Amino acid sequence: MAGRPPKPTEQLKLEGTYRKDRHADRATNSALEPLTAVECPPDITGKARDVWNMQTAELCQLHRVNALNLPVLEQAFRAYKRAEECMNAIDEAGGLAAYALQMKPGQADLSIRERQFRKDYTDLIDTFGVTPTGAAKVHAPQEKEKLDTDAITALIGNG
User: What is the per-residue pLDDT for 85?
Assistant: First the structure.
């Protein structure tokens, strides 16, 4: 079969081009349906679990979490948890300066690992629109905008 595949029904609804008479018989992809709530995995504990509960509730209300992107969300919070573990180890050593003095040759620098885990978390969570950069990339369902033909005519002229 040649040609491009049809758009998913969810996409048609988001764009406002869904027509019941034409598109009702199409199969829908249930994996793309937004989840109303997500359970925190048992390996995410401590402050990461608190942040999970706060952020996922909001993300579910905004319909940004589905079955396909849930593993990305879980991986983001695992990176957050690892960053917290690194920071806690540094704090237990008496702070960053005391930790640096106690480091042995060849030992992994937890401050560098902590920064990398924070970056991993931010990069992954950006796909859900949590940070300002991510929010600019995420398109929330909106009504189709009407074209302002007068403004367009004024810009390009009449012919």
Answer: 95
